[in-house]
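Subject: Protein record for review, amino acid sequence with backbone structure tokens
Why sent: The fold of this protein is of interest and is recorded here as tokens.
Notation: Tokens come from a learned vocabulary of local backbone shapes, not from coordinates.
Attached in line: The record itself begins immediately under this heading.
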Amino acid sequence: DITVSVLEGARRVITGAVSLEQEAGSTLTSSTGTLVFRSPAVPAGTTTVTFTLSTSISGIFKAASFPFTYRPALSGPPVVLDADPPQLGEEEDLELHLDLGNAPSLPRPF
């Protein structure tokens, strides 16, 4: 069995795998595949949790962890929170800095 646990602050929630599909040629010592699991609901305002996947085969325990960032649901257009400079003139090669809110994150690297 594969156990999936989610740590949010001091709260740990345990869930199981929905499915596991291993690629051809996988062995007990080396494998590649896809693990599907459901993320439990988290309290409003939670931004990052740590997922831990663990299993035990023949008394050998293995685990892996990774952080996951929840993104808030976006509704409506992006909003300019701050602009520098606050006004534009007739200058050439002007560098404008904007802080945006309610905008999706850009994939990295840019």
Observations:
- The beta strands are 2-8, 11-22, 33-37, 48-57, 60-69, 79-84, 97-101.
- The first strand starts at residue 2 and ends at 8.
- Residues 2-69 form one domain.
